[in-house]
Amino acid sequence: MRIYHKIPELKEYIAFQKAKWRSVGLVPTMGFLHEGHVSLIEKSASENDLTVVSIFVNPTQFGPNEDYETYPRDFEADSQAARNAGADILFAPPPDEMYPDGYGTYVYVEGLSDLLCGKSRPDHFRGVASVVCKLFNIVTPDRAYFGQKDAQQLVIIGKMARDLNMGVKIIGCPIIREEDGLAKSSRNTYLSSDERKRAAALCRSLYRAQEMVQAGQRNAGIIHDAMIQTLKEASPDLIDYVEIVNADTLQPVELLAGRVLIALAVRFGQTRLIDNIVLEV
Amino acid sequence: MRIYHKIPELKEYIAFQKAKWRSVGLVPTMGFLHEGHVSLIEKSASENDLTVVSIFVNPTQFGPNEDYETYPRDFEADSQAARNAGADILFAPPPDEMYPDGYGTYVYVEGLSDLLCGKSRPDHFRGVASVVCKLFNIVTPDRAYFGQKDAQQLVIIGKMARDLNMGVKIIGCPIIREEDGLAKSSRNTYLSSDERKRAAALCRSLYRAQEMVQAGQRNAGIIHDAMIQTLKEASPDLIDYVEIVNADTLQPVELLAGRVLIALAVRFGQTRLIDNIVLEV
């Protein structure tokens, strides 16, 4: 596995590989790789001649009081994990390689970025879209792989790629969960052991919603209230949101129909966790 | 010369050409081609294996009370002019090919877009950056050619291409002028014959500034006032701005030094004209 920290060298190598008609898959990550990331890398490796994993804790997607400084980092473990999962290239630029002095260009996806997580994280998706746009231009992938756990991110990046004619196929991959159902996340390491136990309430509330839908319930308000009840049993420190929306437009639905995304964000202590489920109703 | 109206067909043809190692130059235009555009096409044809001219009157860069509907269009004459100048491909998409229903992704270049023309045209450069980003992704040019007449646009696109790692070389080309010095512009056709005569005051005021600088004047305020005086002799209907700025940052300078852009926007009747000069001081 080749490791690059600089953009020009990486671009040169990829141009050389593409000239040999090699297909390129990209797995953009913020590092601290877990089984969720590994599943993306393995999928990319199975579908492309060359798999690029990027590791970049992107400052522009963190709010001023968020965890940019303390976000967990472990380059050695990440290199090992990426290599083992089948990555051919690891791209780990320092911040000033991605955002040199005077940087100032941002990509904004209207209508999707100020909903759900965007309400409490106002510039988050602008930062996500911009850095992914840059990574697409640097790596020129044929396919890019994102976890379904960040459901809103996946919808926004899909729309950005279509709207800006990027010619990259965006592929969403299933959420990987712990045994008790907690979605794998680099931020799970923040949880105390008590918080960790209580955090399983996120997926319990989603499973409860799924069961209600399977039993015929279509009223979003009733499902929402049952989910809140399940969450409250775990005494979360904050329920940021529980929302039932159209999976493509992210607009709230009152009666469930078609592809529905049920998404939530909950805080235990200082740790904000997200989870979701997509139901075909 | 091949003519394309649809994005997928154009992309397919260009991918086929690039696979044969052909270099691609792009000249983005809004059509109604004049000698300024022709000079860009000729330069691209001399530097690239394949020259793509796009003709698209981009709705997102016009304000609500601007001339999108009335902007001059002449596809037959443009095809002829592009072919004669050496274009290999004409790309002329209809609006809904570029902006399908539900379109919503925009590129914004901070710090440069709300100055000069951006003050009176608040969303203009967001529309320009977004459509050029799309064209770059569709055409994947090695080089793209823009007229120096739209000086602010050239700076913004250069910054966008660098910031977003687009890998396109942005090439600015000299302003082409009428005999009396008026910068060629598709909008010159709006002018009455009286307005047309008076409009030469734009470049006269720039030449006056240039002479003052050559004579040793470095005080931006004094040069500005002299330019206003020259403009006023032609009784313009509005002097939108006359500004003396750093040619890279577009920030106003008080004492001229380094690369300085002197830019102005003036209205005769309903027609807003721009012009500029770059001086190495």
Describe the protein in words.
2 copies of one chain form a homodimer. Chain A has 281 residues and is of the alpha/beta class. Chain A has 2 domains: 2-173, 3-Layer(aba) Sandwich (Rossmann fold), CATH 3.40.50; 186-280, Pantoate-beta-alanine ligase, C-terminal domain (Pantoate--beta-alanine Ligase, Chain: A,domain 2). Chain A has 10 helices and 10 strands. In chain A, the strands form 2 sheets. In chain A, strands 1-4-3-2-6-7 form a 6-stranded parallel β-sheet, with helices on both faces. Chain A is globular, with a radius of gyration of 19 Å. The model of chain A has no long low-confidence stretch (mean pLDDT 97). At the A-B interface, strand 5, helix 6 and helix 7 of A face strand 5, helix 6 and helix 7 of B.
In short:
By secondary structure, the first copy, chain A, is α/β, with parallel strands linked by helices. Chain A has helices at residues 7-19, 35-47, 75-85, 95-98, 117-120, 124-139, 151-163, 193-198, 201-214, 220-232; strands at residues 2-4, 24-29, 50-55, 89-91, 105-109, 143-147, 169-173, 238-246, 259-268, 271-280. Chain A folds into 2 domains: 2-173, Rossmann fold (3-Layer(aba) Sandwich), CATH 3.40.50; 186-280, Pantoate-beta-alanine ligase, C-terminal domain (Pantoate--beta-alanine Ligase, Chain: A,domain 2), CATH 3.30.1300.10.
